[in-house]
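From the shared-data thread, chain only:
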Amino acid sequence: MSSRIRTIEAAVAEARAKGVERGIKFEQSFDLAVNFRKKELDVSKPDNRINQELVLPNVLYPPPKICAIGDGEFADKAKEAGAEHIVSKDDIPRLGEEKKDRKSLAKSYDFFIAAVDAMPLIGRYLGQALGSRGKMPRPFPPQADLNAIVNQYHRTVRIRMRNTPTFHVKVGHMQMSDREITDNIVAIMNFIESKGFAARVSHVMVKTTMGPAVEFSV
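Structure, as tokens:
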């Protein structure tokens, strides 16, 4: 085991212990916060803002919620694969015309997948609500292996910077082992390195939902 993994795993264990010490009765999630040096990462430039999906080694609990948009074989396979909600093509115009409904749909689900033939309607009626949140669906043909696709999304997080040089992302849950959470964090840190941003990191912290942040060096 590398010293880096030991350092991160120790921070995860400390965050778990401190979260429990607070007497929180519900099962908490683990969140990672990565802060960058403002002078070295000008987020006013689009190239310096990360907005990307990343597949983690371990499934998150509870897993991200997935909405599938389409009909027929695609809808049946998506439901069998574990998609939490199915929207038919006929429902798309109605949702698009009701601002409250389309905003609620966009906020209620983490990821969207769609049948190829549904994409024109999605772009027309739901594009603004989904696109502004970085949630425009990936299109798939009816013969796609939706079991594999849904499983992948259950291990996926969206790393997104907005107007400040920082991002927060869920990396685990109390049900997961320290090592599983550590492996997810390592995957995110490797991703940051692959983007060429590692040298610009100022602070990295892990915490449970209601617990204090535990800082660690990378």
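The longest strand covers residues 29-36.
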